Amino acid sequence: MPQHKLPESFTLANGEVLKNASLYYEISGEVLPGKEIIWVCHAFTGSATVIDWWPTLFKENGGFIDLNKHVLICANMLGSCYGSTGPLSINPETGKAYEADFPLLNNRDVVTSFIHLRKALGISRIDYLIGGSLGGQQVLEWSVAEPEIIAKQVIVASNARHSAWGIAFNDLQRRAIELGGDNPEKVDEALSVARGIAMLSYRSYTDFELKQSGRGADNHHKAVSYLKYQGEKFNKRFNSHAYKILSLMMDAHDISANREATDREVLSKVKAETLCIGINSDFLFPVQEQKYISDQIPNASLEVINSDKGHDAFLLEGNLISELINKKFNKVVNEKI
C-alpha cells in the first residue's frame, strides 16, 4: 500500500495540526520519458483506484486514459476512508481513532498535501489534471496554487465556490447522520438516509421517472427500494465521520477566500489550458457554475453534455468526457459529440 508521509506536523489552513499524516496513492503505468502525466482528483466518496469509480475514462472501456502513453496518478484525499489519514486513523496523541475529533479540512489543505506528494515523486509538470464535483474543486484550487505546474486541466460539474443550494443539501445529510447519535443500530440507518438525500441531488427527475417509476416484484415503490439499496450498499464502504468532514470541506470551497482578491482576479491568473464540462440536467452543480469558471480563466472553454442522468453523469458519461478532452486538446472531433 504506497503511502506518502506528510511533514510530521502538517499545519492546516485553520491553524490546527495533523501529526504523522500520510496519503495513500496509486500510480498506473510506467513513468518513462515522453509519457504524459495524468493526475485525477477523486470524487467525494471515491478512492485512489480511479478505474473502480470512473471506468469509462479508460481506453479499454472507450475512454481517454491510455496507460501505454499516459501515467495515471491519484491520491486518496485527507479525511477520506480509503487509506489516507482520516477520522478512522489513530490520533498519535490519544492512541485512539480520531472519529468525531478529526480536524476540519478545506480543499486547500488537500491540495497542499497533493503538492507534497508531487514533489516527492519528482514530478515537475502535470500534463492533465482532471476532476469532477469535489475533485473538480480541488483541480481548480491546484491550478491557482501552482499555475506553472499544471499544463492542462479538466473541471467537470464543479464550481468556483460552493452554492447555497449545495450547502443546504449537505447540511440535511449531516443532520440526518447526527440523528443516529451513538446508537450502533441507528448509525447505519442515519448514514443510509443521508446517502438517499445525496442520491436525489445527484440524479434528475427524468432519470427517476425512466428507471424508478412504479412498483417492483415485491410491490414496493421502486424509488423507495432503490434509495434503501443505495444506502445499504454505501454503509458497507464508507464512514459517517468521513462523510461529515468531506461534506464540510465541499461547503467551505471558495476560490477567493483569504486571497485578498475577487474570484475573477484569482481565476484570471490561471495559466493552464482549461476545459470546463457541465451537464444540462445537473441541478446540484448547474452549467452556469462551469460557465462562470470558463469565462474567467483566460485560456478556457466550456462544453455541455446532454444527459438525463443529472450530476452523476460526470461519472457515468466518461466516454463523452473523453471525446471532449480529445476535441479540446488533441483536435480530434467525434461526430457523436
Automatic annotation (TrEMBL):
Keywords: Acyltransferase, Amino-acid biosynthesis, Cytoplasm, Methionine biosynthesis, Transferase. It catalyses: L-homoserine + acetyl-CoA = O-acetyl-L-homoserine + CoA. It is found in: Cytoplasm. It comes from the Bacteria. Pfam families: Abhydrolase_1. The active site is at 133 (nucleophile), 282, 311. Substrate binds at residues 195, 312. Its main location: cytoplasm. Pathway: Amino-acid biosynthesis; L-methionine biosynthesis via de novo pathway; O-acetyl-L-homoserine from L-homoserine: step 1/1. Homodimer. Transfers an acetyl group from acetyl-CoA to L-homoserine, forming acetyl-L-homoserine. This is Homoserine O-acetyltransferase. The gene is metX.
